[in-house]
């Protein structure tokens, strides 16, 4: 971990991530305007000194909307991932530890679910549950669970046959001790890394759902929804689509690069040479 | 060009050594700055001679091989010197020129034949490829030539072997193919990087004989890299001893063996196990049985209940028997050696004893009969502890040494909770490690130190039987001796019995009271140590004993 910042990926990822996290924490406080305040006289303006990022179709200040939208976007990505990783890891660890027919049954079911693309799967769940932020979040996390379960299971399997685990079995340790003290601490790093990378996918799927009208509802300042709403005014003022679009890209890229760098730093085989 | 100058040229090349390395230094760029791997190496291999490069792991011997082959990792930094192949400077060659030299003028034989052959290509094609690339033969010619090359390595049906894939050949056969490939283009220099380490003793012996025979036939020059002094003395003319990237001693192999001058060489020679020097504990006065193995069998890939129901006649044929009908007993306080090649079932027996493997038959411990793995309880597990081969893998990397050793103390309640800390210090002292090591993580320790921790953990349970599964195999010679001595000392102090599993016959004859020999999952021989050379030994035992490198009689400078 000491030389984490020696790779350009890590520096870039951390920089982007700090911007996004800063916006998520302090955004609503430093927003210069009320994000919902209409200003019909100044509709669809480009960037200027009064409105740094310009205004949208109702004359609302884009910078303020982006800043106030940041917390919900990041919360959505992190929340959906945490939930998905939680569900998936539990399933994967159970499958990996028990082995045998339990493992086979669980994994065959998950394989079936994995055959459905993430977005399609999410759409299916949202259609059943109904739209809205919370439902979208739940849908994304459920869609993530099978993939995470696979990763958790393979991490557990690779650790399970190590000699220190066999030594614990030979000592007569209980199953709970073996899983919590010997297996899990060593299987955790691939799970953490994968989770960080997945936050970016969650943000993008969240934005997509918002764009399709199945996630956040107006007048929310969720970034995906902003793109969708501004779409019909795209030719009169491209900024009102580009700004939230770029924001989504920065957030996703930040998490993705950070996750990549984390994987390189945590994997001893990669950090040499 | 006149005839005279031509003759002069011929003479000049003839006199030039096959390989000369002059004042060569190499470092690796790492996160902690430059780390020096080789320092001012001077090494000359005259035409037709074999030079041995001996050193322990980390001494830089493999780096040397890769520098000669010009195949260094990107973080390698060469800090001066010269490497000349028949007078030609290799450091100046472009990668493209080197590709032409590699395989044609020099080639390499690797340690593990199972990973140095491509598993998806037929063996014939792998030899022919080299011939087509470097000698410009057509495919048909190359295959014919490959057959000849393979026949030279003593493979009985070379034509059939060419058609096989690597997984269809045994380890020894695969190594013969690799050697045939190396010799195929009649190179000037061949580098052997521990070519027998991954093979079992009997096969290793055959490969060494083959190497000597081919060398005499082709008059090739060779660099033979190994960690095993005894083995090197059989094949090389001259030897250089490498220690931490510096050549500490060089000379004719007989002289280096007879009169080592560098302290490190003396230490290395002294550490080679000498079967005639007994270091074990005294045999228990009256033999009392501790554990009896009664018809132990392990069936890997055994058919399931459903398979048995429908195809009962196949039940014996499906899968394979890791061990079959093994009977012997372990006596209290003794050290029982179990020897055999890889795949002979010796580790399977260790796993059965440690309760890690389902088995058939019965284990009897002091009158109590255990008929299956599931009924093995914690009390049994406390009495029988196991130490694994690889110390890197047997310690949890996320736990401190203190916690690792404390675990059996807590689990079995060996000492009261408040005394655990003191006991850890005692145990560390018993395995000759400083007390402060309790606060370290396994990766901060060397291989030998880690193995000591694993041994301390096993003895922490105050067991009656400790199973040592190849505990010295992953360690360097000098460390091996220390670990073996430590084990004997602990046995003396605690009176525990020990089942010592190994493939090293020299070592086991230093330690064991009785020796069991396993072959293909069966117990083929069982004898008291002094009877090792007696006439009624099983032919397999005799073959094994004959194959071990003979320990050079060097009593004169045994370390005092």
From TrEMBL, chain A:
PROSITE patterns: ABC_TM1 (PS50928)
TM segment ranges: 12-31, 74-97, 109-129, 195-216, 236-259
Taxonomy, superkingdom: Bacteria
Residue ranges occupied by any ABC transmembrane type-1 domain in the UniProt entry: 70-259
Pfam families, A to Z: BPD_transp_1 (PF00528), OppC_N (PF12911)
Cited SUPFAM superfamilies: MetI-like
Family designation: Belongs to the binding-protein-dependent transport system permease family.
Keywords: Cell membrane, Membrane, Transmembrane, Transmembrane helix, Transport
Protein name, as recorded: Peptide/nickel transport system permease protein
Taxonomic lineage: Bacteria, Pseudomonadati, Pseudomonadota, Alphaproteobacteria, Hyphomicrobiales
Example GO biological process: transmembrane transport
Protein's cellular compartments: Cell membrane
GO cellular component: plasma membrane
Membrane topology summary: Multi-pass membrane protein
UniProt organism field: Rhizobium wenxiniae
């Amino acid at each position: 971990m000491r030389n984490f910042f020696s790779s350009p990926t890590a520096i870039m990822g951390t920089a982007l991530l700090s911007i996004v996290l800063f916006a998520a924490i302090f955004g609503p406080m430093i927003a210069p305007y009320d994000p919902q305040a209409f200003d019909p006289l100044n509709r669809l303006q480009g960037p200027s000194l009064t409105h740094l990022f310009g205004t949208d179709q109702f004359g609302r200040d884009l910078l303020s909307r982006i800043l106030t939208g940041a917390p919900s976007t990041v919360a959505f990505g992190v929340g959906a991932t945490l939930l998905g990783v939680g569900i998936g890891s539990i399933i994967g660890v159970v499958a990996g530890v028990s082995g045998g027919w339990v493992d086979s049954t669980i994994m065959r079911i998950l394989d079936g679910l994995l055959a459905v693309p993430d977005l399609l799967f999410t759409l299916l769940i949202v259609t059943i549950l109904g739209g809205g932020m919370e439902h979208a979040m739940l849908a994304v996390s459920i869609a993530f669970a099978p993939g995470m379960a696979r990763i958790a299971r393979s991490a557990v399997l690779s650790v399970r046959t190590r000699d220190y685990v066999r030594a614990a079995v030979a000592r007569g340790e209980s199953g709970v001790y073996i899983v919590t003290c010997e297996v899990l601490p060593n299987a955790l790093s691939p799970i953490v890394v994968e989770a960080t990378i997945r936050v970016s996918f969650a943000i993008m799927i969240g934005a997509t759902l918002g764009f399709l009208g199945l996630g956040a509802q107006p007048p929310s300042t969720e970034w995906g929804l902003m793109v969708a709403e501004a779409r019909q005014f795209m030719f009169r003022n491209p900024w009102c689509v580009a700004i939230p679009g770029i924001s989504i890209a920065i957030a996703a890229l930040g998490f993705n690069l950070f996750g990549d760098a984390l994987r390189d730093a945590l994997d001893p085989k990669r950090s040499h040479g | 060009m006149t005839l005279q100058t031509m003759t002069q040229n011929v003479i000049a090349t003839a006199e030039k050594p096959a390989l000369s390395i002059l004042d060569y230094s190499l470092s690796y760029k790492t996160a902690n700055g430059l780390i020096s791997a080789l320092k001012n190496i001077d090494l000359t291999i005259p035409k037709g001679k074999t030079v041995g490069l001996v050193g322990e792991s980390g001494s830089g011997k493999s780096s040397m091989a890769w520098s000669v082959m010009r195949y260094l990792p990107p973080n390698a930094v060469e800090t001066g010197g010269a490497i000349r192949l028949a007078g030609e400077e290799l450091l100046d060659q472009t990668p493209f020129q080197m590709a032409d030299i590699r395989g044609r003028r020099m080639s390499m034989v690797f340690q593990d034949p199972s990973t140095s052959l491509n598993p998806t290509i037929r063996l014939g094609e792998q030899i022919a490829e080299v011939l087509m690339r470097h000698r410009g033969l057509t495919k048909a010619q190359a295959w014919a030539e490959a057959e000849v090359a393979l026949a030279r390595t003593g493979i009985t049906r070379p034509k059939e072997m060419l058609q096989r894939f690597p997984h269809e050949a045994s380890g020894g056969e695969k190594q013969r193919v690799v050697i045939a490939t190396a010799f195929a283009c009649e190179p000037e220099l061949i580098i052997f990087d521990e070519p027998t380490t991954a093979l079992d003793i009997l096969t290793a012996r055959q490969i060494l004989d083959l190497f000597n025979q081919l060398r005499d036939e082709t008059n090739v020059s060779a660099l033979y890299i190994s960690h095993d002094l005894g083995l090197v003395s059989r094949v090389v003319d001259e030897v250089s001893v490498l220690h931490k990237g510096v050549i500490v001693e060089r000379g004719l192999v007989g002289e280096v063996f007879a009169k080592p001058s560098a302290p490190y060489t003396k230490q290395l020679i002294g550490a080679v196990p000498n079967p005639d020097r007994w270091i074990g504990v005294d045999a228990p006065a009256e033999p009392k049985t501790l554990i009896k193995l009664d018809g132990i069998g392990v069936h890997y890939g055994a058919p399931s209940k459903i398979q048995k129901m429908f195809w009962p006649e196949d039940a014996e044929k499906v899968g394979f028997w890791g061990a079959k009908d093994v009977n012997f007993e372990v006596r209290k306080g003794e050290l029982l050696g179990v020897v055999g090649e890889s795949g002979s079932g010796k580790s399977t027996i260790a796993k059965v004893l440690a309760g890690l493997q389902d088995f058939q038959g019965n284990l009897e411990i002091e009158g109590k009969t255990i008929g299956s793995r599931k009924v093995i309880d914690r009390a049994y597990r406390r009495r029988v502890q196991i130490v694994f081969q690889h110390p890197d893998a047997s310690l949890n990397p996320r736990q401190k040494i203190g916690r690792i050793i404390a675990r059996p103390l807590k689990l079995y309640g060996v000492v009261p909770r408040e005394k655990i800390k003191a006991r850890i210090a005692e145990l560390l002292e018993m395995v000759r490690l400083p007390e402060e090591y309790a606060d370290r993580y396994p990766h901060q320790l060397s291989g030998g130190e880690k193995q000591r921790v694993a041994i301390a953990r096993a003895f922490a349970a105050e067991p009656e039987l400790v199973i040592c599964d190849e505990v010295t195999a992953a360690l360097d010679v000098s460390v091996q001796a220390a670990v073996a001595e430590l084990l004997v000392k602990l046995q003396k102090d605690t009176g525990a019995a020990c089942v010592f599993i190994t493939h090293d016959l020299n070592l086991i004859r230093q330690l064991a009271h009785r020796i069991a020999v396993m072959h293909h999952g069966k117990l083929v021989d069982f004898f008291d140590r002094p009877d090792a050379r007696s006439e009624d030994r099983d032919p397999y035992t005799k073959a094994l004993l004959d194959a071990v490198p003979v320990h050079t009689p060097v009593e004169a400078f045994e370390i005092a």
